[in-house]
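TASK: fixed-backbone design
INPUT:
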């Protein structure tokens, strides 16, 4: 049984703990901007890939399209996002950050930057490079199991 093997259980606990503590830190910092964690996630995704569709944003954020729509509505209401008709298919909207949205993204990142610099400044580039392949493989495996892509049934 998996959880009889203490290192596996500890690994899952540590990953979950890192996520929870990172989210709490980030939420506390961006509260000064009256910004939510999901809004920051969307701004960060759009800062990297501006002009995506709502469906593509949902995939990037690993959420459903309804949640992405509500999130986009909130960003648009704040003046951080514009929905522009696709040139090839006017039924599709492209999501584009406004200048105000870009500034909100930059302001949020600057608020959390010092914390992340502290965390990663205590690790060498070699340590990070060594752990990344393992975490990528773990992520792929969890994604397969959770999305039902795994070929044989998980018991």
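OUTPUT:
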């Amino acid at each position: 049984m998996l959880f009889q093997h203490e290192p596996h259980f500890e690994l899952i606990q540590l990953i979950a703990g890192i996520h929870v503590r990172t989210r709490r830190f980030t939420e506390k910092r961006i509260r000064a901007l009256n910004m939510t964690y999901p809004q920051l996630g969307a701004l960060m995704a759009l800062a990297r890939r501006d002009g995506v569709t709502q469906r593509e944003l949902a995939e990037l954020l690993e959420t459903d399209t309804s949640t992405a729509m509500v999130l986009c509505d909130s960003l648009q209401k704040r003046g951080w996002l514009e929905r522009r008709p696709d040139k090839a298919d006017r039924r599709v909207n492209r999501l584009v950050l406004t200048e105000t949205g870009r500034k909100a993204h930059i302001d949020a990142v600057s608020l959390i930057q010092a914390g992340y610099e502290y965390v990663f400044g205590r690790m060498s580039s070699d340590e990070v490079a060594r752990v990344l392949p393992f975490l990528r493989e773990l992520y792929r495996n969890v994604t397969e199991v959770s999305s039902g892509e795994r070929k044989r049934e998980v018991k």
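COMMENT: The CA atoms of residues 70 and 114 lie 30 Å apart.
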